[in-house]
Amino acid sequence: MYHCGDLTPKQRAEWLVSLPTLAWLALFLVIPAALIFVLAFRPADPYGGIGAGWTLETVRALWAPSNLAIAVRTLWISLLTTAVCLVLAVPAGYTIARASEKWRNRLLMLVIVPFWTSFLVRVFAWRSLLHPEGPVKALLQAAGLAGPETTLLYNPAAVVLVMVYTFLPFTILPIYAAAEKFDFRIVEAARDLGARPFQAFRKVFLPGISQGLLTAFLVVFIPALGSYIIPDLVGGPSGEMLGSKIAQRVFTDRNLPHASALSAVLVLAVMAPLVAVLALQRKKKRADIIMGESP
Amino acid sequence: MSKRFGAVRAVDDVSLELKKGEFFSLLGPSGCGKTTMLRLAAGFEVPDAGRVFLDGRDITDLPPNKRPVNTVFQSYALFPHMTVRDNIAFGLTVAKRPKREVRDEVDRMLRLIRMEDQADKKPDQLSGGQRQRVAVARALVNRPRVLLLDEPLAALDLKLRQKMLIELDLVHDEVGITFLYVTHDQAEAMSLSDRIAVMDGGRIEQVGAPAEIYESPRTGFVAAFIGDTNFLEGRVRECPEADYCRLEIAGLGEAASFNDRQVRPEQAVVLSVRPEKIHIAHDRPEDAPRRNGFPAEVEDVIYLGASTKYWVRAGDHRVQVLRQHSRYFYDDRPIRWKDRVWIWWHADDGFMLEGVKSPQ
Known about the structure:
heterodimer, A: mainly alpha, MetI-like fold, 13 helices, 75% helix, B: alpha+beta, Rossmann fold, CATH 2.40.50.100, six-stranded mixed beta sheet, five-stranded antiparallel beta sheet, 8 helices, 32% strand
């Protein structure tokens, strides 16, 4: 533990340089987040404002079965989205990293091209694609894979589909970056030592890009937990997530304490995997340092 | 075997047979196809033509993991996320051998490379020499029929390289399996190998024991690549005896040479004489049968510590002469720049090369 007086000149300089950033973070992240936590313990007034005094009612109301169902759904939709993204992104990142330079640039371009169009427009595009009279259903019906009653829109599957579509580039890029730095001669060494292609992939390639996998996981899972636009536009009542619930509390019910309580839960849920990953990394780093010091 | 990459013939109609238990080196400049040969043996490349046999079994179509050969890679390619122990155990683990056996075998290997106390370190905590030893152990633990080594010492500095050279030799003696060693360093190949194949441009120039390759190279490339040599272009004048010929060296004079080629008069040949086979002194040597002596002028003196290299002008030729300092280097009249000297060598110490253009 350092006390102020213990700081070396270098550490003091580091603090000084970080000060603007820290001030920014405090002003626009820490204080608003704290406000949200505080609001959760205040009563609502009938006109959409904040009442006087303190109450635990809102926090207790969080345990309502309807909320729990939405929380569970938010969790599994986010996990499923992340899993599908990773499963698709690993071969994609691998292929791009192994492609010749000419092809690598083309493929990377294809990954980035969707960003040229507004996110909202792309989600609306999916709405028309999945619409009961849209082309996807027509195609599936023609192939005999869908009946006239099949609904493609307004269910959790649609949410997962559009979320995977949205987050896939964010997964491919860190995995590609890790695969590009990966020394593929190590895979050759594994094959030489008797590993079948898939064994070499699992035992050598995946651990080799673990940092990229971790980044990809966080980059998808955390925004997925908080998604609001996608479930709102393609989810319908059965595809509701925490994000859409919060929006509903703010805009429809005009109940800020309820919205705050839900938001607080979401913030805690998002922080849990982050803290876990950071702790894991720190533990690993410490173990490496200790190993390095041994004779 | 043949293998081409695009328009490049990396390995061009090459045939090679290794004897069981021997230390065999593929030696040549970079791009000569030696690494491709190794990769063909390991199974990382498939030949365009030809087959690969091991103990009489055709293994051409087997993938690397099914071949009973293992490789020590130039970069070592150790698994960075695994400890030394897990690296060495990798082959046995994927082969699903019992845990006890894996542990015992890995311990045996750790003893062999004398790294028992480093077993729990990660590769990035090891020195270059230690990594190299782990790479060897990781390959040997699988008891391969052939161990393939791809320039395993290239990344090490000179002193360490010499030390590892001796260690590799000891390991080979101890495990007794066939080693196929790829290198561009003739000193490495000479000191380790039972036999060497010298390669150039995807072809094998000569196969033989180190002394054979050095003392009687069959081509100009081999003569120039292995050690230093002087090339003297000339023409056969007569062969009065069966074993000796007299040559007319353009711009120098007449020289006698041992005739191991069965050359005929009027044939164009190149006489190759190694620098250390040539004597140098101020005084004219006594005439002796089959001794070739010429007057010369010293143009350069390069002191090398254990020896000195002299570049002398003899006739139209620049000839290099190497003189070992056996006891007294500071003799009465050290040979200096611009000195008039005599150089001579015995007819048996030169060798004729046919149909080659002097690479110099």
